[in-house]
Amino acid sequence: MTTAHQEFLWRTLKTIIMQVLNQHGRMYGYEINRAVQNRTDGNLTLTFGMVYPLLHQLEREGALLTQTEEVDGRLRKYYCPRPSTELPTSRQPTDHNRLIRMTQPFLKPSSTWAVCQ
User: Fold this and answer.
1) Could you list the residue range(s) of the whole structural domain that residue 35 is in?
2) 3 state SS of 19
3) Which of 19, 53, 64, 108 sees the fewest Cβ atoms within 10 Å?
4) Per-residue confidence of the chain (117 residues) as pLDDT tens digits?
């Protein structure tokens, strides 16, 4: 995968995480993953190797506030969108809309298909 593709994927996943947090509020990593799975009818699962590096990057960028609490003898880190902060992924939905518009003609079923003989 090229660097441009990796960056696009990374930004897409950051947008998804921020949208989930903006809708649900304070959540921990496993809850975020479950919310993404539920929202996509199980078609998208974020691995722990993806979700936590993304959450840590969003925290470093100042988009998230965190709270650590002890639950059942273990520490659990909760993530919450920072209020009134310009999100680093705020332009991403526009990028996605443009991509969807560009690819739609290729995804529609065609009544005619070229046949090679």
Assistant:
1) 3-107
2) helix
3) 108
4) 667 777 878 888 888 899 899 999 999 999 999 999 999 888 888 888 999 999 999 999 999 999 999 999 999 999 999 886 555 544 556 666 776 676 667 666 666 655 565
Asked if residues 64 and 81 have their Cβ atoms less than 8 Å apart, the reply is: yes
Could you tell me the strand order of the sheet in which 27-28 lies? 27-28, 74-81, 64-71
Q: What is the pTM of this model?
A: 0.71
Structural domains counted in the chain: 1
Backbone phi, psi, residue 67, to 5°: -140, 135
CATH code at position 61: 1.10.10.10
Among residues 5, 7, 112, the alpha carbon closest in space to that of 57 is found at: 7
- Distance, in Å, from the CA atom of 111 to the CA atom of 37, rounded to the nearest integer, reads 34
In a domain, 44, yes or no: yes
Residues 6+ apart with CB under 8 A from 76: 28, 68, 69, 70
